[in-house]
Amino acid sequence: MSVADRSLAQPRPPDRPGQTQRTVAQAMIQTHRAVDSAVIDVRYEPYFSYPDETEFFTTSYRVVFDRKTDRLRVDRPGYTLICDGKDILLVADDLPGRHLRVAMTSPLTYEQLVGVFPDLNNPMPPALVLLLAEDPMGWLSGGSTQNASAFTPKQKGREQHTGVRFASQYGSAEFLCDRKTQLIDQLLIEVDAQQLVNSGLDAVRFHYDLTWSSVNQPVDDKLFVLDLSKSVEATTLAQFLAAPANPGN
Fold this sequence. Notes:
By secondary structure, the protein is mainly β. It has helices at 25-33, 110-116, 126-132, 136-141, 237-242; strands spanning 37-49, 54-56, 59-66, 71-76, 79-84, 87-92, 98-103, 149-151, 161-167, 171-178, 184-191, 203-215, 232-234. It is built from five helices and 13 strands.
């Protein structure tokens, strides 16, 4: 079984979109909704513990966001997704000479992005969910935000942070936010031991570190432009994945 097959804690869409738990987490959601533009670097590390070994890896990606113009760029290993205010565009390293283009029919939302390209949610970009999702806490918890509560982080170096803890689809989830900005900079999802029965695993957790390298600053227009002059266009994800590439035709 590959590491990807063991991603037990990948969140699913909330059962009731739009239902937001009115807890201490609401202030954090409102803070992110007030962000007009941002550049966010994400470090994602899943951890799997077995009786005789520990397995983990690290994935890094970047999100560039411009709310006022409905523009977005996500650079992840293997692909780039761009919203230029009119279309959602996708190119992949292992599919050269072709691209996916889907017209935006409404203001940009996380639900719309995942509808076009489900893999955007694997691994989940937590800051992007808070910025764009209709029910961000539902997405981040897998549809469960019961008993959300604040706590004071005990980790060294986190003295200036506020913590929010709640039940998640697979166990528990914790946010850490900078106390001054209220922007999320760490998310930890831990899988409950009951979920691991007969799995051969002792522990599973998913850790995200976020760095907001720019907030509410001008965004470079060039970041939302792709050279598609020699690229074959697909209009559905299935077509994009299946169609042969014929550059220049």
